[in-house]
Amino acid sequence: MSLRPRQSPGLPSPANQRRKGLKKSINSRPNRNRLPCYLKPGATVEINPEDPDFRGSWFLGKVVSIQSSDKIQVEYNTLLDEETGTKLLKEDIDMSRLRPPAPLMSEREKKKVIVVGDKVDAFYGDGWWEGDVTEVLADGKFSVYFRCSQELISFTKNQLRFHREWVDDAWEPPLAEKESEEDKADGEEDDEDVLSQVDLEATRAIAKQMFSSGTVVEVSSDDEGFQGCWFAAKVIKRIGEDKYLVEYRDLREEDGIEPLKEETDFIHIRPPPPREEDVDFAVGDKVDAFYNDGWWVGVVNDGFKDGTVGVFFRLTREKMRFGRQGLRLHKDWVNGTWQPPLKGEEIKRTNVSKVSCDRSVRPKKTIEKQEFSIGATVEVSSEEEGFEDSWFLARVIEYRGDGKCLLEYDNIKAEDGKEPLREEVDVSLIRPQPLESVMVSPFERHDKVDALYNDGWWVGVIVKVLAKANYLVTFEKTQETLRFHHSQLRPHQEWIDGKWITSSKSQKV
Questions:
Q1: Are 108 and 174 in contact (CB under 8 A)?
Q2: Segment Disordered: which positions (predicted)?
Q3: Residue 501 exposure: Cα atoms within 13 Å on the Cβ side
Q4: Helix or strand holding residue 370 (H, E)
């Protein structure tokens, strides 16, 4: 190839910014079928600390990693490490001391009168403590006795929940069934405002418990055109009782540089939903689709042979196509737990078509006499030394026989520096432009990626995750390591037998 001088990676990248919407590759993870789903890394759990002073208490946290067959490393949402006083406490906990977040009271339980002798959990000191109601006070509060500490403390109703035990992967006593018509009618009008207030108080209490400074969250907005969309952010600090100052991960201030900071209330904030691996989407599934820096609610209405999914957005009446990594099954954050959509909200699932993705990665195979239409946008590789594993954007001008075609590059100029460079290349060095996809979450160490540098995409491997969505990427051919922002990366794919195959992890781990 006789291109104008190009440099292999070696200097900081020029300001070539890829459009928003980069996906994260699918990671192969160890098979942990022996573990309950609520103990997968990243899952929200309730933790019973091993410290004797915390007997009978449960604190919210998340699973960090699996340490052994019976030990799980967890990180508390509110408890701090005594040594630092600033970092969240991490501990290796026996599996028997972990459980899913306990459900808050059902509608029937909210209407139930709390009486002396009821066994309850009381929210106190950032955790739920097991106790017994000993007295109903005149001011609407309840005296609760804690056997472990032999203390007697008063609480309001919204600070209490009926006590349950997690036994054999189920709650005891079991959750109340649906209310009968008589239950619904009995006192419905009288209790409506009270129940609404209880719900708000419960949501406020959960927010105080979960959303401390530094917590990663998602934030929604009531602004016109943004209803139902959730944006990734982190909590900077709590402001008063009901508001939080958050910093968005992908939204910027007007200067386009600094992350946007904004106040929001406890109703519009929630933790990120737990990640689910190996999901096959079906027509009718209610999903969240990542687009323009946020997660938008839609419904799958089509599946395509290339593995992409058609999504319909009811609010805007738009239809768009997404890669499976840009989608997640929709869930609602209700009373401190993740709930699937209510049945009947989805499109009726008739003639269901599963949408899957081929995750096998085979050796690259040369495709001879690959046909592209005139004017088609393609990517071109090079056999020149120093330019292996790089791809440049171009379009097909004409075919010239003997497996050759004339291309015009998008970003490479001819020697005069004015006109786009045109060049005759072998068809075997051409492939379609990879499908546009969206990023589900940050890249991880060992992810195989393409990095945008000097007008081309260069194949590399992430060797270190840095702050503010930056990464160190190593390039095998040149043995160089450079720093890139996530907007300059895309997951690596191979064009094999007319299909895009995602290669999510470097084989040299």
A1: no
A2: 1-35, 173-193
A3: 15
A4: none
Helical residues (DSSP H) of 145-303, grouped into ranges: 181-185, 188-210
- CA 106 to CA 179: how far, in whole Å? 10
> How many Å apart are CA 454 and CA 447, to the nearest integer?
21
Q: Which helix (H) or strand (E) holds 233?
A: strand 230-239
Any bridge partners for residue 296, and if so which? Answer: 289
* Lookup: tokens for 408: 């015009």
Radius of gyration of the chain (CA): 27
**Is the peptide bond between 173 and the residue preceding it cis, with omega within 30 degrees of 0?**
yes
- Whether residues 245 and 298 fall in one domain: no
Closest C-alpha to 449, from 12, 24, 11: 24
The tokens of 72 are what?
A: 């799980």
> Domain of 182: which CATH number?
2.30.30.140
Tokens 């390591």 sit on residue: 481
- CB neighbourhood size of 450 (10 A): 23
- If you search the block for the tokens 């060992």, which residue do you land on? 446
Lowest mean pLDDT among 81-90, 373-382, 421-430, 440-449: 440-449
Q: How does residue 276 score in pLDDT terms, banded at 50, 70 and 90?
A: confident
Task: Note if the pTM is more than 0.85.
Answer: no
**Which residues are CB-neighbours of 64 under 8 A, at least 6 positions away?**
41, 72, 73, 74, 75, 90
Domain end among 219, 246, 270: 270
Q: What is the DSSP track for 338-353?
A: EEPPPTTSSPP--S--
Q: Which amino acid is at 456?
A: G
319 DSSP β-pair partners: 312
- 300, 308 Cβ separation under 8 angstroms: no
| Burial class, 371, CB count within 10 angstroms (exposed 0-12 / middle 13-18 / buried 19+) | exposed
Any domain includes 367: no
d(CA 212, CA 339): 23
Neighbour tally for 39: CB within 10 Å? 18
Q: Is residue 299 part of a domain?
A: yes
- Inside any domain, residue 156: yes
Name the token pair of 412.
Answer: 């490479």
- CB 79: neighbour CB atoms within 10 A? 21
Record the tokens describing residue 102, joined without a space. 């306990």
Of 209, 233, 261, the residue that ends a domain is: 209
Of 80, 153, 76, 167, the closest CA to residue 122 belongs to 153
Residue 436: exposure state from Cβ atoms within 10 A (0-12, 13-18, ≥19): middle
Q: What is the largest CA-CA distance in the chain?
A: 94
Please state the φ and ψ torsions of residue 292, each to the nearest 5 degrees: 50, 50
